[in-house]
């Protein structure tokens, strides 16, 4: 029976016991870890996308997405504390709901990590190209810096940064904690500076109408903005290193998400109030879909008439500051994004290779995927393969579409973990839990419902792509993985070497 193929939780936990870490993190450290992990890519690159979907109502979208993240994170934390090993949601699902669900979760995580890395690459390209054009006066043809949906041919800078990060992962360059801390400081400082300069010049008339597309638009923007919170699970997975996790984990999770939500709302208010953020309409007054060729054409028409809009910008925050009279500070924002975002791409691709590696070690993917380079001691085959796909995503798709596709995979994985936590409470109530999700019978269903709500709020095209990806995953599973699964063949062991990939760069806080 497929659903009966459960990976032994005792074997997994035996590995975890060998890796026990010192409990040293308090509530403050967890909160700071969460802020560093969450603040970053989404707010830099998705503000324009959210404005086109919800207008000023995107401020409410940040609250909705943050709430869903909070309840999902509380469920995630219990599982992460109980099963602190590699594989993330894939491993948790394997231990509770069986191999088929675990395979689908792992397959969905490909969307979360690889496609997200493509989205960040496109976001990085927008800011760096804007910086070169405005600070140095270099005119770069749109054909070479935008994909087909954005009125170009190929996004070469996005391809380039994806290729560079792939090379760094293959050679195993280790990013120091000090450098990582500096990158986090750069991002937080840049956003703080934006708030300080943009909020004082807010014009309240720009907030009317607040929700031009109704609550459906707010929901759609929340589904996209969810991308801005990805990274919060860094707090959940630190449960094993937390002092008094039952008290400190909720404080760290809710505290960091709360602070980030307030930060995001202030940034959104600064954009909306200073330059306006109403959706761009077509020639006949129809609201155009974000990431569409029609929107790109309308934005080009507005630019020709000298009437640019923030929803048309590929570097919304830097563009806003230039519009309100701070061109040099706008360039600094672009520089900050250019310096900090590559570390996020590295983290996303690192996570992707780790999931692939663990699935390969379980026999669900070909053994070549877990092949280790003799010199660099990194899983170079799967790293290069991942890098190729990330570069192709970044070259031809706009950031909004990539973020939405990534969110579909993330929401599926988080919903699966929330269900797994609830199931394990019933099937194995006596299992040691360093952290227990508060009010699990309420929190877990709300987390599942929240994930389903945001998934349903994604565009029809995105949902169809997710379904198509899931169908492909099922075909691969039954054609290849089912017969070669180690659990299916009775090889139900987890060794220390099976649980982790070889020495690799430490994934940076985003």
From TrEMBL:
Membrane topology field: Multi-pass membrane protein
GO cellular component: membrane
Claim: Disulfide bond is one of the keywords in the record: no
Coiled coil start-end: none
Keyword Lipid metabolism: no
Membrane-crossing segments per the record: 27-48, 60-83, 152-171, 178-201, 213-232, 253-275, 329-351, 381-399, 405-425, 437-458, 464-482
GO MF entries: amino acid transmembrane transporter activity
Localization in the cell: Membrane
The entry's keywords: Membrane, Transmembrane, Transmembrane helix, Transport
Annotated protein name in UniProt: Amino acid permease
């Amino acid at each position: 029976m497929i659903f009966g193929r459960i990976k032994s939780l005792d074997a997994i936990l035996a590995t975890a016991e060998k890796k026990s870490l010192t409990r040293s993190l308090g509530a403050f450290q967890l909160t700071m870890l969460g802020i560093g992990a969450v603040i970053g890519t989404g707010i830099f690159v998705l503000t324009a996308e959210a404005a086109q979907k919800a207008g000023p109502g995107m401020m409410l979208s940040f609250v909705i997405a943050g709430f869903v993240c909070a309840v999902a994170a509380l469920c995630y934390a219990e599982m992460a504390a109980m099963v602190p090993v590699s594989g993330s949601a894939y491993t948790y699902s394997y231990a509770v709901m069986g191999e088929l669900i675990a395979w689908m979760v792992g397959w969905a995580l490909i969307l979360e990590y690889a496609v997200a890395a493509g989205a960040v690459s496109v976001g990085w390209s927008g800011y760096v190209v804007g910086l070169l054009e405005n600070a140095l006066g270099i005119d770069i043809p749109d054909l070479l810096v935008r994909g087909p949906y954005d009125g170009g041919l190929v996004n070469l800078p996005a391809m380039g940064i994806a290729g560079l990060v792939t090379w760094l992962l293959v050679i195993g360059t280790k990013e120091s904690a000090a450098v990582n801390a500096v990158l986090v400081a750069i991002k937080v400082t840049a956003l703080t500076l934006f708030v300080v300069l943009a909020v004082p010049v807010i014009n309240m008339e720009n907030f009317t109408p607040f929700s031009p597309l109704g609550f459906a638009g707010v929901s759609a923007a929340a589904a996209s903005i969810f991308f801005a919170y990805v990274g919060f699970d860094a707090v959940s997975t630190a449960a094993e290193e937390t002092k008094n996790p039952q008290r400190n984990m909720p404080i760290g999770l809710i505290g960091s998400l709360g602070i980030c939500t307030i930060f995001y709302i202030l940034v959104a208010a600064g954009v909306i109030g200073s330059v306006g953020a109403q959706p761009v309409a077509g020639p006949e007054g129809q609201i155009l879909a974000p990431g569409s060729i029609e929107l790109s054409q309308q934005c080009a028409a507005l630019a020709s008439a000298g009437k640019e809009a923030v929803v048309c910008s590929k570097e919304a925050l830097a563009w806003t500051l230039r519009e309100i009279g701070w061109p040099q500070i706008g360039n600094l924002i672009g520089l900050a994004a250019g310096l900090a975002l590559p570390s996020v791409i590295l983290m996303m691709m690192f996570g992707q290779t780790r999931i692939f590696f663990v699935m390969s070690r379980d026999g669900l993917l070909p053994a070549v995927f877990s092949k280790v380079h003799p010199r660099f001691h990194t899983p170079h085959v799967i790293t290069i393969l991942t890098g190729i796909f990330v570069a192709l995503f970044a070259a031809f798709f706009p950031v909004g579409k990539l973020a939405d596709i990534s969110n579909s995979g993330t929401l599926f994985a988080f919903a699966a973990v929330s269900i797994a936590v609830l199931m394990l409470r019933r099937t194995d109530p006596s299992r040691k839990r360093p952290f227990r999700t508060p009010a699990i019978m309420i929190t877990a269903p709300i987390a599942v419902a929240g994930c389903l709500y945001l998934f349903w709020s994604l565009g029809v095209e995105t949902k169809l792509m997710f379904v198509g990806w899931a169908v492909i995953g099922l075909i691969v599973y039954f054609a290849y993985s089912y017969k070669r699964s180690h659990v299916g063949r009775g090889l139900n062991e987890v060794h220390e070497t099976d649980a982790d990939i070889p020495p690799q760069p430490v994934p940076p806080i985003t």
